[in-house]
Structure formats: structure tokens, C-alpha cells
Amino acid sequence: MAQERTGDGGKKRYDPEVKKAVVEDALRTTIKAASESWGIPHGTVAYWYVRRGRKAEEEPRVQRGATTEASGRAAIQVPQNGHLRPHLPGHARRYSPAEVTKVLDYAAQHGYAATTRELGPCKATIVRWQRRVRLAAEGRGDDPTSGPDPADIETQRDQEILEVWKHHPGLGPSQIKNQLRRKGIKTSVNTVRRVMEESGYRPPKVESRNHDRRYEALRPNQLWHFDFVQRFINRATTFTLIILDDYSRFVVGHGVSDAERGDVVIAAFEEAVQRHGKPETVMTDRGSAFWSWRGIGRFTTLLTELGIDQVAVEDKEVNGKVERFNANIAKELFDQHRFSSLSEMRRHLKSHLHFYNHSRTHHSLGGVLVPADRYYGRADEVMALVEAGAGREQGLDTLDLRHRCLELFKVTSTDGRPAVFLMGQQIL
Fold first, then answer.
1. CB 266 within 8 A of CB 254
2. 189 φ, ψ (degrees, to nearest 5)
3. How buried is residue 79: exposed, middle or buried, by Cβ count under 10 Å (0-12/13-18/19+)?
């Protein structure tokens, strides 16, 4: 039995000499054998074992299979296999097919106990591998001794992460994780962040504010948001108009000008209506291009003629969806390129908006869908393809959504009251 003493709170305390002797015993035999021999709980011995393994990994001069001596300490033999860390539940080590083959061959010659002592895997793991090999020979399952190495899979995963980040450097770890998920590649945000930080990524400092005023339209074209983004392009001030559908976050229209002009708003709005149909309501701020404090502005007059309601808000949080889009486009487009002319900016803007609508996943849409999926009414179809793994094989971007027909004529019933909509406008 190990010499122990009781510390504060009644917990058992072991002297450093005892810990070192137990770890040495575990290195010579197994953690379980050392635990039974010294009368110390298995978890405690495993914890000491892990800490000793970490210290050995931090000592660059330690050679595998050689003895080391530190000041005043007895030499500890580091095994040839290098298995210093125990493989506890939740921290299991993954073995490559070549390693599985080596373990099975060694077990066939020397038995389970010697294999566990020398190579690491426990008897239950070895028996499970042997059973899988027999089933694979009968054509029932995969052979654990064949297939890609886990290290190769991780390398390929890292390359996929860096490839997406290379093409879209404005995206953060969570957004890249969602982009890969849409392709059928599952990984975690922490893994993506680690790979990006190893390649030079530095997370931006973002001030977040909580708000509880949340709402969402019930169908496409029920509510459109309008707002301008101001940027300097080659020392010239530009204003980019964005028209965003509330239900799907789909950008239905845009325009570029040197000032917040009503002509730009009207032209972009009429083009969006011609392409996608009329909205039921539009939401704007009280800027001069949208709203007139004296009398009725031209844009308001146009909306009245078309029978479209206008909501002019003063608080930016109410129009927060388009405000958030403006922040993202600044980070993902304007901060990533130095445009030499306005025409170059227009080309990049058009390309980026197409990527946003048809390829960029959106957190508010579940992290897998893109705005076009919801706007064109194919969210369920896409989710089924993603869950089936079709995204990695054929790519969901090959399904062109731009020419998909919208349901412009709709009959609904609310509380027994029928309503008829034509191009987003209620007519009955």
C-alpha cells in the first residue's frame, strides 16, 4: 500500500516520491497493474501517468528508448512505442491501418497481455479489430487494416479549411465551418480556428451588443430592407445601396452612386421588382433618398402608386438585418481588396453578391442553407442533399437557382379568412 496523508477537506495526498515510483511501475507494466499493486485508484494513477507523459514530450532531449536523468531524480525508461499518455474514455487514440496490422500480428505471436504492454491497445480493442477483420473477409463490413491513414485525413481536412479561407479571406472560423458542412465535411469551429491561427489568422476585435427585438417575415417578398454602405474607392466617396429580403436574407437588388440619391433607389427598386416581383412592405431609415420630412418624396410616391407599405425607422436595430449585412460586406469585400476604379469595384461587388446569395451559408438559416435556398423555396431539398452527403460529391452550387420560378400568385387562409396575393400584394 502507498504511504498517504490526509490534506485539507479530507482528500488523500501522496508524496512526490510515491507518485514517481507508481508512474515508474506503470511504465514497466500497465496503469491497471500499478493501480492494483499500490492500492491507488485507477484514475489517480492515470492522471499522474498523463502528466509524466506531457513532461516527457516537453523535454526535446529525451530520446525514445533511452534513459534520462534530471537533477537529483532517478532515471525513468521511456518505452520505444512512446505511449506515455493513457487512452481514457473520451480521449481515445486513433490508430492507422498500418498500426492496426502491426498490433494484430504482434498479438497473434505474443498474446494479448504482451501486446497491451508493448504497443498500448487493450485486449477488448484487439479482439474488436480481429472480429472486424473476420467480418470483412466475409464481406460484412470494413477492414480496419486497410483504408486511409487518420493523419492523411486530417491533412486533407486542413487543406480544405485553408482552401476556403484562401478564396474568401473575410470569413471567420464559424463561417468556414458552415461552408465545409454544406460540402459534407464535418469539423468543429475550434479545429477550424486552430488551423487558421497556425496559418496566420488573427481574430478581429468585435464589440457585440445584445438586443431582444427580433422578428422575421413569413414568406419571400413580404418585407424588403433598404440601406446604403459608404466607402472610399480610390479617394472617391461611394454609396452602395443594398436591398435585402427579410425572410431569406437574399439580396434582391443593389446600386452604386457617389451620393445617397433617390434616382439610384428608384432604379434599383424597379429592377428588383421586375426580376423578383413586388414586396408587400419596405423598411428604410429616414435618409433623404428614402424619406422626405417636407411633403412626400419620390420614392414614397412610387410605393404608394404600387400599393406597397413603407416603414421608416429611426433606430438602427429595427433595420438590423441589413445593417449586419453591411458590416459583413465591409469585412469580406471592401476590407479585402484595394480597388483602383469604380468600375472594378462594381465588378467585384456583383461577383460577391452572387457568392453571397448562392454559395455563402448564413448563420440565421441554420448554418447550412444559403439565402437562395430559402428565397426560392428549396430549403428542404438542400437539407436532404446535405444530410445524404451529396454536397461533397457533386456540389450544391451546380444547381442553378437564378432561373427557378417564384410563386407569385398565392392563396392563403388565416383564422378561416382567405386572402389572395399577386406578386406579393394582397388583392382580395
1. no
2. -65, -40
3. middle
The closest of 369, 372, 346, 347 to 357, measured between CA atoms, is: 372
Q: Taking the mean position of all CA atoms in its chain, how far away is CA 3?
A: 50
Phi/psi zone of residue 139: left (φ > 0), alpha (ψ -120 to 50 degrees), beta?
A: left
Q: How many CB atoms lie within 10 A of CB 175?
A: 22
Does pLDDT of 156 surpass 90?
Answer: no
Contacts of 212 (CB under 8 A, 6+ apart): none
H helix intervals, 221-292:
262-276
Contact 351, 341 (CB under 8 A): no
pTM of the model: 0.60
Q: What is the pLDDT of residues 202-230, one digit of tens each?
A: 877 666 666 556 778 888 999 999 989 88
Q: Are 313 and 335 in contact (CB under 8 A)?
A: no
d(CA 243, CA 427): 24
Q: What is the DSSP letter of 331?
A: I
Cα-Cα end-to-end distance for the chain: 88
Residue type at 323 in one-letter notation: E
Instruction: Please write the tens of the pLDDT for every residue from 30-88.
Output: 888 888 888 888 888 888 887 776 565 555 444 444 444 433 333 334 444 444 344 44
Q: What are phi and psi of 134, to 5 degrees?
A: -65, -45
Q: To the nearest 5 percent, what fractions of the chain are helix, strand and coil? A: 45, 15, 40
How large a percentage of the chain has pLDDT more than 90? 12
Residue 206 is predicted with a pLDDT of 60
Say what angle helices 150-167 and 189-198 make with each other, to 10 degrees. 70
3-state secondary structure of 230: strand
Which residue type is seen at 200?
Answer: G
C-alpha grid cell, residue 221: 417578398
What does the alpha-carbon distance between residue 254 and residue 349 come to, in Å, rounded to a whole number?
9
What pLDDT digit, counting tens, does each position of 335-387 carry?
888 888 888 888 999 999 999 998 888 888 888 888 988 888 888 888 888 77
- Residue 427: beta bridge partners? none
Q: Alpha-carbon distance 190 to 174, whole Å?
A: 9
